[in-house]
Amino acid sequence: MQTNKQVLTNMIVKESKIVAIFCLLILSLSSAAFAEDKVCFEAREGASSVTQKDIGEELKNVRCSDTTDGVLWWGDPFDGTQPMGDMPIEADYTHGEAVVKPRTTQLGLYPVCGLACHNGKFPPPVAADAPPRKLTMHTDLVPDALNLQHGKGGIWCLDCHDAKTRNKFVDNAGNLVDFNEPQKMCGKCHGQVYRAWRDGIHGKRIGEWASTGKKRWFVCTECHNPHDVQQGERKSGFAQLVPEPAPLLPKGMDNADHERHGSGH
Amino acid sequence: MTDHKLPIVYDNEKAAPDDDKAAPDSMSRRGFVKKVGDVSATSLLGTAALMTNTDDAEANTEWAEWFQGNYRLMSQEEKAAAVARLERRYSAEYDKKVTVDSTPAEKGVLFGYALNIQKCIGCRRCAKACVEENNQSRGDQEIEWIRVLKMEKGDFDASKMPDGYPDSYGIQVGGNAYSASGVVLEGEHYYEPEKVPEEDAFYMPIQCMQCEKPPCVKVCPVRTTYREPDGIVVVDYNWCIGCRMCIGACPYWARRFNWGEPKLPKKDMNPKTHYLGNRPRMKGVVEKCTFCVQRTRKGRYPACVEVCPVGARKFGNLLDPDSEVRRVLATKKVFRLKAEANTYPKFFYYMD
Questions:
Q1: What is the tens place of the pLDDT at every residue in B100-159?
Q2: Alpha-carbon gap, residue B263 to B278, rounded angstroms
Q3: Residue A259: its chain B contacts at CB < 8 A?
Q4: Chain B: residue whose CA lies nearest to A72
Q5: In this predicted complex, what is the ipTM?
Q6: Distance from CA of B346 to the nearest CA of A (A)
Q7: DSSP letters along A102-113, please?
Q8: Which CATH class name applies to B111-146+208-351?
Q9: What pLDDT digit, counting tens, does each position of B309-341 carry?
Q10: Which of B168, B131, B169, B159 is nearest to B147 (CA)?
Q11: B178: which chain A residues are within 8 Å (Cβ-Cβ)?
């Protein structure tokens, strides 16, 4: 009986090995197929990406630029979105249905953030009023924490990130703010910009134009990098982009020297 | 030309292919002569009857297109027939189900546009998104409705004002001679830096301003271009004779001409079209921005508004005080391009 069992277990082990190999094969195949799908960025390079796919009626969810990998056209503006929820500061304005794309799906470290390294006990929580120190980790996100340009030296990591719950923000009143709602965080300091964004005259929206229509709102961090707001010497809230190619020159014209300014006329 | 056997609805029943041998041109011609008695019209109709004898979907629909009226004067039935004809032809031509919409303007809607000239970074995504959406010609017949101009930042430094003009500079328009004088509408079209925005430059996209008093409409000798009730200026491509008077009249360089047969690859063709908007054009007709009539009359933002990565483009109903464009007009510093031309554009530039 025992030998039989052993044989049986052996077989199961073998089979499971084969199954595992098959799984690996399928996985690698599917990942190969996945690699062929075009991935392009929506507003800020590296902040939000979307994979091109068919949505029927000869349409794609997005069409991407061949030269810059930026999204040029949305077939479905509400793909992958969820309701935005309440506006953080109430106002007497009418608005239609507002949806956003969750930011947490775009953040590489988010799934482990708050669990693996920062679990609330380890490393020992830092007091919120502790003096700024150099970062040993995450220097790819913030190269020099002591010289953070955001707030012109007035703030540092723990003014936005909660010291214990690292997968949440903390606002100036001590409330935890979800990574999916950065507007609740940013609006605390940038009130004027926030109000313009709320009224639809700052920032990007796609969907329906009617003031009562359904729109996808782009939230702050989809366009602005909070860790690099000054873009070095440029003093601009928006990072530089690769432009799309220039238009076709008029027939018979080899170059555009005629319009270059500055070097004498 | 096409291998596709599509269900063809014949406008001239006498010339259906089943009795193509029994539809002799001589007989019908005699009949026409008796009825009409006009030689030139007869020969035209005779040719048309001959063309319907072929199996070619394109030929069958095209001749009917030649004889259709001005879109504005068509009855509802004629419009439906024209739209159905085009859907058949485009579907065969582009190997996909193409829809041609004819949704009219909605009451209580006047489209307006606002562009934040301070935010624009000159990435040209609007121009390319417009091409993706509106089925413009590609390649060596490239047509773009939006043009982004790179402008120098003006310098009005008073300390330099008495310096005068160096000899080599010639006559200057205002401002100071040594550095770029103010802003004249003289930008670079073909700038190609590695990244935008460049230092000391700002960018000014121009496109159709959808004027309330459009000079292009005034000059059109065949009245094929006109202002729709929701404020957009459209072209009935089938009625356009290609005289290009409108191109000369437009102060904003908003109109383009199809000098050659448009080149639109099948895979790039956007199958959701509008009769007055992005349906494929033919050689010899003028085209222009329509604020994406095929999208905006269905509630969607224009393609250029959606693509702008910095959110510099705002669009909405000028008659709705809660619309984004009205909020811009109420709270920002706004100007219109060449306002002195009394064209009353509904395209506003603004600054924060």
A1: 999 999 999 999 999 999 999 999 999 999 999 999 999 999 999 999 999 877 666 666
A2: 14
A3: 187-190
A4: B129
A5: 0.81
A6: 16
A7: -SGGG-TTTTTT
A8: alpha beta
A9: 999 999 999 999 999 999 999 999 999 999 999
A10: B131
A11: none
